[in-house]
Design brief:
By secondary structure, the protein is an alpha+beta fold. The chain has a single domain, classed as Lipoprotein localisation LolA/LolB/LppX (outer membrane lipoprotein receptor (LolB), chain A, Clam). The N and C termini lie far apart (about 60 Å). Helix content is about 20%, strand content about 45%. The protein has a 13-stranded antiparallel sheet, sandwiched between helices. The radius of gyration is 20 Å and the shape is globular.
Length: about 280
């Protein structure tokens, strides 16, 4: 009896470990696919690329990219920080470390580990899936593969492309910039049947202060997908090989409201460009 029970438990553990390994392999395949989106010999940034843009958008790009910088549209980003598992009243922040490959407009993959003491959660998020594991053996989130997930993920990585891969949102097919005010530029992206707007609020010198947008999300008490405010504050700007990018980001649901909860707090450790 005991031998049979031990055998069943062992078989179950092996099965879960294999399942987790398949997730990891899927992460690696997606990273390789996203890296392929980067041109091997990208053009370099020049101010003529900004012709016709409204003034706040021009100010943003001239702050974010130095003339002569190669136009890298794919980035590998490493970060540490905190991930909130609770709400605004009880954030329950856990220390986290993560790596993200961002390749607008194709997609992204964010691989994260968080936890404390006996609680360890790891997994990944992408435009295709959300997959997280407890202790590397028990699946605690298996989402994705439908239109709702794709639309929610699209809002996230359009916004992140603005402040981490600005070369990817220069004027082009499916990309439009308009002026909301003297200090706010609006990006509208149309891709794969989806449309997303992101507002970028700027300082006088063009430095982004925060981004905000209406995100398709079910992060609400009803767990119903709907458009609701999302956004983040950007700070600690640093030079990354010709790009002036934020190295501290705080973002969350219900942005700019009393219910705002910054569940994602990240400190960037490095940003690299594939092939550079």
């Amino acid at each position: 009896m005991w031998l049979m029970l031990i055998s069943v438990i062992l078989l179950l553990c092996i099965s879960m470990a294999c399942w987790r390994w398949l997730d990891y392999c899927a992460d690696r395949r997606l990273v390789r696919q996203l890296h392929q989106q980067q041109a091997r010999q990208p053009a370099c940034f020049n101010l003529q690329l900004l012709d016709g843009l409204p003034e706040p958008a021009r100010r943003f790009f001239t702050f974010a990219i130095k003339p002569g910088t190669p136009l890298y549209t794919v980035a590998d980003i490493t970060m540490t920080g905190q991930f909130g598992m609770g709400d605004a009243d009880n954030p329950n922040y856990l220390p986290m470390r993560a790596r993200q490959t961002l390749a607008f407009p194709a997609g992204f993959v964010w691989q994260m580990q968080t936890g404390r003491k006996w609680l360890r959660i790891s997994g990944s998020d992408s435009q295709h899936w959300t997959r997280f594991w407890l202790q590397g053996l028990l699946p605690v989130a298996r989402l994705g593969g439908d239109a709702n997930h794709s639309r929610a993920a699209f809002g996230r990585y359009v916004a992140e492309a603005v402040f981490w891969t600005p070369a990817a949102v220069l004027p082009g097919p499916g990309i439009q910039w308009t002026a909301v005010s003297e200090h706010c530029a609006r990006l509208t992206v149309t891709y794969a049947g989806m449309t997303q707007q992101v507002d970028v609020t700027l300082a006088e010198n063009g430095q982004p202060r925060h981004v905000s947008f209406m995100r398709w999300s079910n992060a609400n008490p009803e767990r119903r997908y709907q458009l609701q405010p999302f956004g983040g504050y950007l700070s600690a700007f640093r030079d990354f090989n010709g790009y002036c990018l934020p190295s501290h980001v705080e973002a969350g649901n219900q942005f700019a409201s009393a219910a705002y909860f910054a569940f994602f707090i990240a400190d960037i450790q490095g940003i690299k460009w594939p092939g550079n």
